[in-house]
Amino acid sequence: MLTRLVITALATALAVALAPAASAQETSQDGAASYDDDTVIVGYRPQVDRPRALSLFDRVGVERTVERIASADASVVRVEGDPAAVAEQLEASPKVAYAEPNVLFSAQTPRKPNDASFASLWGLRNAGQTGGTPGADISAVKGWAEAKVANYPASGGARVAIIDTGIDRAHPDLVGKTVRCQEQILPVLRTGSCIDDTGHGTHVAGILGAVADNGIGVTGVAFNSPLLVCRALGGSDQTGRASDIAKCIQWAHARGARVISMSFAGGRSKTVHRAILGAWEGGRPGGSVLVAAAGNGGFNVPMYPAAYEEVISVASTNDHDRHASFSNRHRTVDVAAPGAGILSTYRGGYTRLSGTSMSVPYVSGVAAQVRGLHPKWPASQIRKVVRRSADDLGKRGHDARYGFGRVNLSRAARR
């Protein structure tokens, strides 16, 4: 059972349409966000005496501490009663910097397209093969040449982390791509395990990093990038707690992720933001470039973590270079990328999905190729290049539908 928390800045997050029940919305336009029904995240103030802080727990219905989130200087605690009410009481204490329900994030994929004849990778190279507009793509073929990877190596690129539902490591188009793997779903921590039981993470991984020039299947934007995969989203509704998302960000950054790809969206979470700030490292050379989904539903609302300043927020376009009908829009959107009817790897095969989830790995792939060209550039410079090299669409300059425009790998690689 999911409890509902009303917060101002929230959009619609649609569950993945892999089964009839999976088309339901996790959040709605009115700002109602889902959160875990028995845990709260507590962030402490500097130099707080923890034993005294713990004495407060007994008075407000905290049962026990479940785990620590070092990067956020926070703890996940199990509670009795409504997590929102307990969090409110905890936050009133001078020992506590913040307390919040453990917000749930959802994979951003609406219904599966039903056009059985759609079989081309128009997002990489659009020649009008799907009836779309030629050139409405990320200019990948030219971009790979500019990035000096047109010989299609399977390795040697910037390390990219994918936080999602896991990956099918045995898929023929993904074999050998995953260098590190972990499952982080409270209270389970499994190193070396990232089995994808829904296919969402596998689809994202294929768009981003599928092996190129192997005579089968599809091609990833950053086919030369090794992948770090952290499974934080689970269940048929493909949701993940804020605490698990934060732990995955911390894990990925500690293992050298130059780009962190997050195809999910949800409510504002101080815990996730603290982890993002830790990985971002002030935009310095050691920091990770973070990319996330602007969300589905077609609403003009911010979604998190995409709406945080340190994250590249991604909206979706269709094969006519138009704003996809399912994609959210908002002034926090940075760029757009193909997201409608995208063919990619799936459990044991291939399928086509639509959503801002599919757009995120295009942008993550562009960022990875630029980072591979310029490994000493700070994360802030990579983000700037991704934005400024985009093809301006819609209203001139930055706008709520496309941000700075649809990403262009060729232009980004020439910066």
Explain this structure:
The protein is an alpha/beta fold and 415 residues long. It contains nine helices and 17 strands. The protein folds into two domains: 3-107, Alpha-Beta Plaits; 140-413, Peptidase S8/S53 domain (Rossmann fold, 3-Layer(aba) Sandwich), CATH 3.40.50. It is 23% helix and 24% strand. The model is unreliable at 1-31 and 111-119 (pLDDT under 50).
Q: Give the helix/strand class.
A: alpha/beta
Strand content: 15-25%
Which bin fits the share of residues in helices? 10-25%
Subunit organisation of the chains: single chain
CATH topology of the largest domain: Rossmann fold
Biggest sheet strand order reads 8-7-9-6-11-13-14-15
Map the helices and strands.
Layout lengths: L2 E4 L25 E13 L5 H11 L1 E8 L4 E6 L3 H9 L4 E12 L32 H7 L13 E5 L13 E8 L2 E4 L8 H10 L17 E5 L7 E3 H13 L4 E4 L1 E2 L4 H11 L8 E5 L17 E7 L17 E4 L3 E5 L2 E5 L2 H18 L5 H10 L20 H5 L2
Parallel strand pairs: 6-9, 6-11, 7-9, 11-13, 13-14, 14-15
Antiparallel strand pairs: 1-2, 2-4, 2-5, 3-4, 5-10, 5-12, 7-8, 16-17
What would the keywords be for this entry?
single chain, 415 residues, alpha/beta, Alpha-Beta Plaits, Rossmann fold, 2 domains, 8-stranded mixed beta sheet, 7-stranded antiparallel beta sheet, 9 helices, 17 strands, disordered N terminus
